[in-house]
Each structure stands twice: as structure tokens, then as C-alpha cells.
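Figure 3 (text version): C-alpha cells given as input.
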């Protein structure tokens, strides 16, 4: 077992997650050619990807021929060249999806299931190549890219299981000799807008479940991971999906607003699903509301992890280390506030700092790197400004605290108070505050003292106490004695408050991506009063 796998093993308590991380490490060694002494564990260089849009089963350029270059945030080299779509290209994609829905919406569940299972098999064989593209585009480690692909295979297989999920019900009616039913049907064209931080997971989540229920999809790729998101289209193409069922478009950052506006305003799109910041989510919800279109929003987070005095400290430290620093803290579920009861706060913080400081930060293409770089300079500056503000107001830095080139080291900020920005603002980086609580009630108050409501966690040996706290935590997700970062394809994933609304995953997608209709059958003539 590699050093990387051993260290992950100490901080990932969930058996399924641990299995996936081990698999990611093994695949990296065996299939990506990245584990020999001559190159120090660094993989072969990734060539620049020149990509096209995927519309109606064809790989095409933007209508005006414009190109957008995405640069590698670690070394500044061009990682991918993709078409810079505009409104016209988005409209073409919607038209293709609308035409494909005429047949796909009426397709047999067995057909949809078999194609989704085939796509899972295709992706399973292509994981190392896609993981390298992700690392080059985003600065995330190759191991994180592999984990994304492994998890995404699970998303496809769960979606395949949902192909027979359009289940309705017979409802009692007061009309004699009548059968009343509630039936589920696909809605039509769904627009998915996916982010870069877990590009394969969140990109596939935006398309797999809708397609399983008989919808067709237009996916707008992130400007930070366009080639990674286009690889989703190539997986579906290789699996043999009909033309127009999935369409993927890319754009340059200045053109994002008009592309998104077309996807929302076009009368042929019926649902919008978006994962990203709360700021942009509000704008999308407002725009969709004007067009009377339902949206699924998974937005920002400020996930608290409560550690009570009777907790298993070693287990809590391991979970915090994983939840706070995995993927440089660039995960919507990242542990953003660690709320610790006073008697153990200092000991806990020192142990977390020691663990975070030991993580290997380096080239994302190096198989031994556990921490890559931040997505862009603006993200780096934001994290540094939060840390500087906390220090100026009395907090102590126990590890990290200063950017190192394009990367930011794991940073533990101790003694954070509400007067500091890092107490309230989502860092979306590896600088994490430790807040001291007087007792369990105070810890609960502090945890709920945020506008966000996605994930949360509670550590205590008293499960009854933990359940009572979990019931009062204002978050869509709570893990007892587990990290805030955890997801499974079959689980109902989503938040409350400023973290959005709606749910992804498993049967939850049925409510979001289908229409429920009332149908009656009258078996004999009905006597009417007039």
C-alpha cells in the first residue's frame, strides 16, 4: 500500500470512501504509469486537449469559431482549448435536446438502464485519462480526479437503477365506477450547470438521473474544467446513446451570462439544476422564477463540525483533517467551522494542526501529492484575506497561514470569534477556524449561527445526545461521528437556507425531474347536473 493510501486510511473512517481512495491510489499506480523512481512519482505530461462542443451527437465548433483557452493553475500552461459558445450555440443544443426528447421520452426503461450501465463500464476503463485532464485543468490532485471518476461510475449505476422509477399510485376517488391515478412522466429538456470543484461527480449528477427518467439534457460545462465536462459527453457517445439525449457546451468566462440566460429563457427547457455559489444561485433562481421554471439549487456551505468534550478526539481529528483539507477545502461539504467544547479545544486544535501540517502539498500530477493548488489567484487571495483578518482580530495560526506559490497549505486558525470574517464567510479553501464553545448548547448555537445549511457533523460518545443535537441542527445533512464530507449516489443530497433547495440522488430525483399528473378513467357514463 502506498504512503498516500496509508495516510488517507487514517482520516477516512467511512468504509466505502476508504475503499474508493485505495482504488484510486491503486489505479494511479497500475494504469496511469505514475509510480516509478525515475520520475519521482510524477505522471507523464498531459498534452493540451483541443475539444469541440457536443450537440446532437456531433462534435462541432462554436458558431463564430471562437476558442477559449483554459490554463493549468499550477504551472500556467494551456490545459485545454474549447469552443467559446454564445447564445446561438446554447440555442442549438436546446433544439437538439427537444427533438431527441420526442423519442427518448417514450423509450423503454430497459433501454435507458442498459445504456447507463454501458456508460458506467466505459467510464471505468477511462478513469486515469480523465483524472489527468482534471488535474491539469483544476490543479486538483490526480487522486482526487480518480476518486471523482470512481464515484461517478456509482452515479451512473444508481441512475440505471432509477430507470424503472417512474412509479405512480392509484388514489381513492368519490366518483363511482372510476379509477384515479397519479402518474409520473419526464418533463422534457433539462439544463444542467455544473461547477469545477468535483467536476465529474457534479457534472454527471446533473445529467444521469434526468436521463434515466426519460428527459434530455444540455450541460453547460464550467469554465474551469471544460475538457473534463466534455469527457462526460464522450462517455455517453461511446456507450451508444441516441443523438441529442445529452449535449455539452463550453464557453469563455465573459460569455457565461448570455449562455445561461438562453438555457433558462428558452421555452423548450423545463427544469434548471445548478450547483455553485449562493450568489449565482440567487440570480439563476430569480431568472427561472420569471419564466416559471422549477430549479434545483445546491449552493454554498459553512459546514460546522461539533466536537463535544466526551468525543473520541483521535477520530474527530481524523474526520476534521479529511473534511477540512481534502481537495484544498474546495468542496461544498468542507468542514468550514470546527466548534469544540472548551475542556478539549486546545488539545484538539494542536492535534489537528499537526495532522494538517504533515499532509504533502505539491504538483497535482505527482502521485504522492495530497494537497494540490487553488483553482485561481482570486481564490488564493480570498483565503489569505480571511486569515489575515482573523489574525488582526486576535486569532492564532497553529499551522500554515501563508500562500506558497499557487497553493495554500492546510491552516488551522484557533480562537475564532464572530467578529472575524472567517467565522461567517465560506472560505472554500484549506484555512479552517476552530471556535471554542462553553458547552453542548453553546456549540449548537454556534453551529446554527450561519446563513448556510448544507452539511454538518457531531462527535460525541453519547449517541442519544448526538441525535438530539442533529434534530436541532439547521442543515440538510448531519453525520454523527463522521466527517462533514460524505455522499453516496443513492442518498437525498441537498441543503436548506442559503445552501439552496431541492435534492439530488436516488429516489429524490424523481420529484425534481419528473411531472406528476392526475389521470382518471370512468368505466361507465357519468350523470352530470346540467
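Below: residues designed for each position.
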Amino acid at each position: 500500500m502506498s504512503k498516500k493510501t496509508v495516510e488517507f486510511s487514517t482520516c477516512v473512517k467511512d468504509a466505502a470512501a476508504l475503499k474508493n481512495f485505495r482504488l484510486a491510489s491503486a489505479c494511479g499506480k497500475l494504469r496511469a504509469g505514475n509510480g516509478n523512481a525515475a520520475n519521482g512519482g510524477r505522471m507523464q505530461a498531459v498534452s493540451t486537449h483541443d475539444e469541440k462542443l457536443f450537440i446532437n451527437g456531433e462534435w462541432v465548433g462554436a458558431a463564430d469559431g471562437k476558442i477559449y483557452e483554459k490554463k493549468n493553475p499550477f504551472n500556467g500552461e494551456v490545459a485545454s482549448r474549447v469552443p467559446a459558445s454564445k447564445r446561438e450555440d446554447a440555442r442549438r443544443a436546446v433544439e437538439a435536446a427537444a427533438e431527441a426528447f420526442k423519442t427518448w421520452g417514450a423509450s423503454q426503461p430497459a433501454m435507458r438502464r442498459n445504456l447507463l450501465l454501458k456508460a458506467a463500464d466505459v467510464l471505468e476503463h477511462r478513469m486515469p485519462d480523465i483524472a489527468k485532464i482534471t488535474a491539469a485543468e483544476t490543479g486538483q490532485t490526480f487522486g482526487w480526479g480518480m476518486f471523482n471518476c470512481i464515484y461517478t461510475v456509482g452515479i451512473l449505476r444508481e441512475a440505471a437503477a432509477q430507470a424503472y422509477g417512474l412509479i405512480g399510485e392509484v388514489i381513492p376517488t368519490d366518483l363511482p365506477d372510476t379509477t384515479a391515478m397519479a402518474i409520473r412522466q419526464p418533463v422534457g429538456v433539462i439544463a444542467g450547470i455544473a461547477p469545477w470543484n468535483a467536476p465529474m461527480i457534479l457534472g454527471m449528477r446533473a445529467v444521469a438521473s434526468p436521463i434515466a427518467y426519460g428527459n434530455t439534457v444540455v450541460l453547460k460545462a464550467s469554465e474551469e474544467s471544460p475538457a473534463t465536462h466534455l469527457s462526460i459527453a464522450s462517455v455517453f457517445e461511446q456507450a451508444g446513446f441516441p443523438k441529442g439525449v445529452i449535449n455539452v457546451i463550453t464557453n469563455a468566462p465573459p460569455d457565461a451570462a448570455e449562455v445561461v440566460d438562453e438555457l433558462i429563457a428558452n421555452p423548450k427547457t423545463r427544469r434548471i439544476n445548478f450547483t455553485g455559489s449562493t450568489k449565482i444561485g440567487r440570480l439563476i433562481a430569480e431568472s427561472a422564477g420569471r419564466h416559471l421554471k422549477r430549479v434545483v439549487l445546491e449552493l454554498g456551505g459553512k459546514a460546522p463540525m461539533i466536537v463535544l468534550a466526551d468525543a473520541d478526539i483521535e477520530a474527530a481529528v481524523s474526520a476534521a483533517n479529511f473534511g477540512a483539507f481534502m481537495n484544498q477545502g474546495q468542496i461544498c461539504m468542507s468542514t468550514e467551522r470546527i466548534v469544540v467544547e472548551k475542556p478539549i479545544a486546545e488539545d484538539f486544535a494542536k492535534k489537528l494542526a499537526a495532522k494538517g501540517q504533515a499532509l504533502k502539498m505539491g504538483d497535482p500530477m505527482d502521485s504522492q501529492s495530497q494537497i494540490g493548488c487553488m483553482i485561481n489567484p482570486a481564490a488564493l487571495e480570498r483565503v489569505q484575506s480571511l486569515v489575515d483578518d482573523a489574525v488582526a482580530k486576535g486569532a492564532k495560526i497553529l499551522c500554515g497561514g501563508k500562500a506558497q506559490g499557487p497553493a495554500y497549505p492546510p491552516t488551522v486558525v484557533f480562537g475564532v470569534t464572530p467578529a472575524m470574517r472567517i467565522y461567517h464567510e465560506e472560505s472554500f479553501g484549506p484555512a479552517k477556524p476552530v471556535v471554542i464553545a462553553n458547552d453542548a448548547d453553546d456549540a449548537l448555537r454556534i453551529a446554527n449561527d450561519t446563513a448556510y445549511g448544507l452539511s454538518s457533523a457531531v462527535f460525541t460518545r453519547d449517541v442519544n445526545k448526538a441525535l438530539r443535537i442533529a434534530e436541532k441542527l439547521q442543515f440538510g445533512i448531519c453525520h454523527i461521528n463522521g466527517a462533514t464530507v460524505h455522499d453516496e449516489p443513492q442518498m437525498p443530497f441537498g441543503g436548506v437556507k442559503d445552501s439552496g433547495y431541492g435534492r439530488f440522488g436516488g429516489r429524490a430525483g424523481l420529484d425534481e425531474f419528473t411531472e406528476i399528473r392526475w389521470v382518471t378513467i370512468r368505466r361507465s357514463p357519468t350523470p352530470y347536473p346540467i
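The radius of gyration is 24 Å.
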